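Please decode residue identities from the backbone states below.
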């Protein structure tokens, strides 16, 4: 097997305080950003929620000669529509789905059917104003086939209300929490619940770090970001399990070294696999960030940040948390008298000590 690193001996656990301090700094920055934006009069919200969560209008337009996404977005911006989402359909290349945010102040409670209809009409009129720059619309019952001088036709309009957005947000949070609970139970059953706690806390760490970046830089949060977060959860846990499995193998072979030494060796032994796997995925995601366009921008940014930090947390966060849990539960005890190394050598598992059995004379 190809190995990038040969005979490396990095003391990862010895640097755990610096790693944890770095993570805390990022999460505090995100928390300060969210609180400051939320409570500053006239400021923005904690997160830049997209149409999927805040509500808005969805317009489906069919073109005779479809313009590019950037051209449509520019026309919408010139018409006063900010942050539009342009989505193409794979089976109908001449159609485009345009999502725009609420154009009028809406209450936080339930919207009446009349208010929703007004939102749809207002959104449709604004989109029509923007699309008229490409040519005339086929009005009324006319189609592009019956109106040869028309450049496009709006074939459908719909609204995504605040209630639907709230339901989507709650379902997204529920799906993420259920996924983490399932991961916790699986690792607890397959390995040990202290390792499960380390893996799940590392996953929470990755999610919070991604949300911190989205709050600080005000990247748009939509349903594709939730899909990216769930992908990050699976990827991060997979890397952590590889290290935990190696720790378990080394503990069965080496019953004299401290848990710190075995964990450091396990991380170093799997480091090549972690870097190669994560590096290839991150390069693929980087291409999405650079060339994927505006539609995939939030999704690709969430993946780029999450996978990079997930690779980091696998090595620097998950294992130290698992070892810390073990020390708190008495699975690993401080062995000052028998330790010959520094502080990172003081933790040894009492359950792994060899026992000399003496024959009993009867």
């Amino acid at each position: 097997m190809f190995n990038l690193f040969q005979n490396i001996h990095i003391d990862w656990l010895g640097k755990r305080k610096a790693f944890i301090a770095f993570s805390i700094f990022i999460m505090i920055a995100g928390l300060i950003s969210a609180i400051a934006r939320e409570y500053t009069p006239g400021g923005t919200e904690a997160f830049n929620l997209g149409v999927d969560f805040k509500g808005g209008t969805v317009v489906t337009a069919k073109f005779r000669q479809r313009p590019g996404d950037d051209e449509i977005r520019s026309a919408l911006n010139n018409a006063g529509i900010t942050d539009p989402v342009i989505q193409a359909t794979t089976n109908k290349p001449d159609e485009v789905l345009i999502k725009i945010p609420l154009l009028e102040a809406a209450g936080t409670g339930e919207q009446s059917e009349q208010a929703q209809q007004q939102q749809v009409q207002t959104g449709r009129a604004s989109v029509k104003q923007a699309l008229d720059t490409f040519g005339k619309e086929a009005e009324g019952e006319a189609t592009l086939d019956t109106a040869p001088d028309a450049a496009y036709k709006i074939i459908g309009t719909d609204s995504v209300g605040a209630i639907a957005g709230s339901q989507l947000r709650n379902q997204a949070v529920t799906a993420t929490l259920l996924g983490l609970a399932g991961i916790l139970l699986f690792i607890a059953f397959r390995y040990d619940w202290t390792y499960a706690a380390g893996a799940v806390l590392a996953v929470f760490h990755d999610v919070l770090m991604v949300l911190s970046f989205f709050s600080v830089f005000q990247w748009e949060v939509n349903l594709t970001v939730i899909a990216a977060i769930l992908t990050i959860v699976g990827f991060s846990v997979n890397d952590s399990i590889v290290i935990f499995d190696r720790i378990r193998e080394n503990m069965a072979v080496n019953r004299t070294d401290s848990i710190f030494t075995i964990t450091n060796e396990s991380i170093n032994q799997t480091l090549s696999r972690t870097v190669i796997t994560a590096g290839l995925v991150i390069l693929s995601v980087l291409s999405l960030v650079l060339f994927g366009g505006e539609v995939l921008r939030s999704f690709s940014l969430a993946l780029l940040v999450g996978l990079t930090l997930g690779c980091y947390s696998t090595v620097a966060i998950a294992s130290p948390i698992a070892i810390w849990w073990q020390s708190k539960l008495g699975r690993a005890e401080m062995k000052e008298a028998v330790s010959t190394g520094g502080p990172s050598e003081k933790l040894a598992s009492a359950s792994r000590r060899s026992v000399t059995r003496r024959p009993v004379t009867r």
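Observation: The two ends are 56 Å apart (CA to CA).
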